[in-house]
Amino acid sequence: MATTASHVWRPSASRLQVIDGFVPGPRGVPARPPAVLRWPAKDPADVLDYQFDIGPVLSGNDGDAISTLDVTITPSGSSDLSLLSAAADGSRAVLWLQGGHVNTVYTVTITISTEAGRAITRSILLPVVAYVSTGGSSAILILEDGTSLVDADGNALVLGTGGV
Question: Which domain holds residue 57?
């Protein structure tokens, strides 16, 4: 008789973002602003796991871990990107995200509280692009690293829309 195998689920390392701005620097040197956090683009039909690791914030504080998560996605309207579920695994927040409108860059803002009382809030950009052909004549501009080319407002640049 065949037995169904149970699998241990592990989040994908390809959609991992580590918190920024916690690198010590010499005194008197102005701190550089941290880089914009960005996950790789997704298709509207994808339902994928995305991770955010706050390990650098907890460094030297063994035993501290994420206790609560608050996730806000903008823009937020009908059939926009939405949070399917959220979980914590030590210093990593794991979000399952679905949907979204093509050629839209969403801002996912995560507010995390830890068991020791720390509070961290960061925003991460998530572009939604059409990886599956829908027969339209426009195409989003994607760089070699998989990120979309955006304008000053964070909107994806699209061929065939008059803007490029």
Answer: 13-22+34-132
